[in-house]
Write a structure and sequence with these properties.
Length: about 60
């Protein structure tokens, strides 16, 4: 479920997230493949993916 959210990315709003979902981008992998992210957002998403794979709860906790 976490990999379906984009609100933690810098500059992302609820409307941006809804627009992604409506365009068929449902998760982080879809977003990375779509090319619709800024360079910074792409970098952030890659860091999030690595943190999720590594089960790094502290990384996500620090975002709150």
């Amino acid at each position: 479920m976490l990999n379906n959210s984009f609100l933690h990315l810098q500059g992302f709003t609820v409307d941006d997230e809804e627009n992604l979902w409506e365009s068929g981008v449902r998760n982080w992998d879809d977003a990375l493949a779509s090319g619709g992210l800024t360079g910074n957002q792409r970098d952030e998403l890659l860091q999030c993916s690595a943190a999720l794979i590594n089960r790094d709860a502290v990384y996500f906790g620090d975002m709150l």
